[in-house]
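Human: Respectfully, please carefully check these tokens:
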Amino acid sequence: MDKQALELAKRITELDLERDAMFEQLIALVGSQADELLRFLQNR
């Protein structure tokens, strides 16, 4: 397998784990409004 592809896959996995941790922090801050807040910002 291509080294660059492996590195990209590894980075995507790392980002996914980081996103999960950040989302948990967001839930701690705003509770059940976390999904709504993300959708609002994504649709701007």
Summary: The chain has a mean pLDDT of 97. Residues 3-30 form the longest helix (28 residues). The helical segments are 3-30, 34-42.
